[in-house]
Every structure is written in C-alpha cells, then in structure tokens.
Give the backbone structure.
Amino acid sequence: MKPPEVFDREQEWSDLERFLADPSPGLHLGIVSGRRRVGKSYLLRRLARTGIYHQAIEEDRAPALRRVAELVAIRRGLPSGTVAFDDWLPAFDALLGPYPGSDRPSVVVIDELPYLVARSPELLSVLQRAVDERVDGPPQALVLCGSALAVMTSLLSGSQPLRGRARLDLRMEPFDFRVARKFWGVPDAATAFAVHAIIGSGGGTSIWSVSACPVGHRNLRSSWRTPCSTPPRCTGRMSSCSARTRACRTGRCTSRS
C-alpha cells in the first residue's frame, strides 16, 4: 500500500510494488530515473523500509567503498570499521546478503548511481555478474536510481553490460500544473500556473518554505496568499534569483529555505 505521505504517484508506486512482488527466482533489476526534485529518492526510501537504501555521493572510489562497508557492518551488527572492501565485487556480494540471523533483504536500492559509475566504470559489469549469478536464486530486487539522465538512459542500451537484464524501467516525470495545483493547495488555476512556472511541481515532496518573509509561515500550502513585504534573498539554491524577485513583486512569496 502506498504510504499516506506520498502525494499522487499511484502509477509509479503500483509499478514498484508489482516489481517487488514478482515471485519468480533471481535478482530482479529495476531502473528508476528522472530529473532532480521529482521525488525519486523520497519514493524509494519508503519502498526500501523493509530492505536497504544507499544514497551515493560524489566522491572517489575508496571512500565510496568505505561507506558501503559501513552500511554492511551496521546490517551485520558489527562495530564501525570492522568491514572493508577493496573492490565492488565483494561489496555487492555482501550488500545483497544474506545477513546473520535474517534472510536476504527483499530490496536493495542504490540511489545516485551515476556518482559511483563516474569513479568506478567497472561497476556496471559487476552488477551484470550479480544479476547473472543469482538467476536461480530466491526472489530479490535491486533498484538503481539516478538523475543524470544521459547515464541512466544509456544503462540498458547498445552493448552496455545491463542491456536486456532490467525487469523495470521507470521514468518519473514532474507533476503537470494541474496535479501540482492540488499538491500546493492553490485554489485558482491562474495562480497555480504561475507557482508551477516559478518553483516547479514539487514532485510529491513538500520542500519549499518561506524564508524571506517574516510572517512565520513555513509551507507554501498555507502561505501562497501571504504578501511578501521583504525583498527575497538569494540562497544559491535556485538557478535564477531574478525569478524569485519577479515572484515576490507579484505578491506571492516563493522563497526556498
């Protein structure tokens, strides 16, 4: 069942649930992609509540392996620093389990995969081996997610190692302004269109708040009507400060904290 805090995304959640429920043997590979801030990580964190979720960051190969080793140590109930990997083959063997006292995790999510591939190009062939070696094993899901669309769309193409191995290829799109209007709770279509043009769809996660206006409102759902009496400041987290300024001049406060 879709968590109540996830807005809309019925089709996406249904596709993911069906993917996880597949009873056929083997390691089932799923690909989830989409531009940033559409709610991919938000959705997958909830999908992996009974499994493992790992979000990669932009770092070199060695620290990336150390972070996976720490995750495995936690799952095994071992002290920090007691697990170490020199390459990705044993790292993924350990990550996929099984773990002492428990079965294999039902789902393992690797978020921001392109960060890992950039420093470890051999990783895709490692994942190929992981899928192929477990073809007759118990059902288990491995979800690879990322926002670098050029990388994610190429994973299953041409002569790539993972070509023909994915059972799910899910592209998450931003909300259109009609769905975003319901998400933000904006009552009229004209204002909803303007809000969507300036701050986007929200993607199913409420991340916007009013930081520039000293009125105490912290969420656009309750503050879209609030006039902005103070010029908004640019925090560097929007690509266009001028867009924020124009929004404030219209009397709609759209700053991001």
